Amino acid sequence: MAGESAHEVARRLRAKADKAQQSAERWERGAAGEEATAAALAVLPAEEWAVLHDVKWPGRRYANVDHVVIGPPGVFVIDSKNWSGRIAVRDGVLRQNGRSRETAVADAADAALAVAQLVTSIPADRVHPVLCFIGPEEVSGWARDVMVCSTGNVVAMLCSRPIALTRAQRGLAALDLDASLRAAIEAPMPARRLPPPPVPSRRKPTAAHRGRSVTLAARARRRRRADAIKAIVVLIAVCVLVFVPGVLEAIAGWLTALFVS
How far is the C-alpha of 244 from the C-alpha of 261, rounded, in Å? Predict the structure, then answer.
């Protein structure tokens, strides 16, 4: 059928474009969710709390951690979620429209564990994972060890936790994380590589190279012969002076006559 192959190519291209559009929309929703959580966290008093946004997930090449908050109750690693539908925690299980979302809980716990390994100045159990959902409706609860909240009550839930870190510990934790965590959009520096060692030439020597080599070898042989002759002459002179009677006395008399006269 005329034009059938062209129609098929167009159909595949449209399908790819639709997938790209859907992926872009998901990323945009995620960005909007992170911005909403950052706005909610902005009301925390700066003299008591420190907040880092959008940093590299330690140990992972492409993943990021949305927010890391350091305050009197501890360190909180917050993952923003801009989900639709009804979000609730029932019997320690996170559910979206009634369906379990265990993967999100596990990912939040893994992120907190990775951050805890960087904070050597405080115990690891002072680092807590948090899932923060976007919206004014309050969501509260715990899915295993993961705090579940919304932008409507995230600050209240953080501040309601008991004090676990002193001011000095908070300062040390902030220094640890500031030195270890990089911005997620920062491009990693390429690894420096040493230049490869030179490869010996496998070309056959030319006639000129062979002639130069022969000349250098002949000069070396002549130098060795001259050195040997000098050594022999010196040895003979020493033997004459030591073993031939009257030679030393004659030389001494000649030198005395030379300097006295």
Answer: 27
Q: Domain-by-domain residue ranges, the chain?
A: 25-180, 213-260
Interatomic CA distance for residues 27 and 107, integer angstroms: 18
- Order of strands, edge to edge, in the sheet holding 64-71? 50-56, 64-71, 74-81, 127-133, 146-150, 141-143
Q: What is the pTM of this model?
A: 0.61
Q: What is the pLDDT of residues 101-139, one digit of tens each?
A: 999 999 999 999 999 998 888 999 999 999 999 988 889
| pLDDT band, residue 164 (cuts 50/70/90) | very high
- How far is Cα 148 from Cα 79, in angstroms, rounded to an integer? 10
How far, in Å, CA of 78 to CA of 65, rounded? 7
Q: Are 41 and 51 in contact (CB under 8 A)?
A: yes
Q: How many Cβ atoms are within 10 Å of 222's Cβ, its own excluded?
A: 9
- The per-residue pLDDT for range 81-97, each reduced to its tens digit, is 999 889 999 999 999 99
HSE (side-chain half, CA atoms, 13 Å) at 204: 2
- Alpha-helical segments (H) within 117-166: 154-160
Residue 156 contacts by C-beta under 8 Å, 6 or more apart in sequence? Answer: none
Please give the DSSP secondary-structure letter assigned to residue 61. S
Q: How much is the pLDDT for 192?
A: 43
Residues shown for the chain: 261
User: Chain-centre distance of CA 214, in angstroms?
Assistant: 55
Alpha carbons within 13 A on the beta-carbon side of 99: 7
- 254 pLDDT more than 90: no
Q: Return the structure tokens found at 194.
A: 């040493």
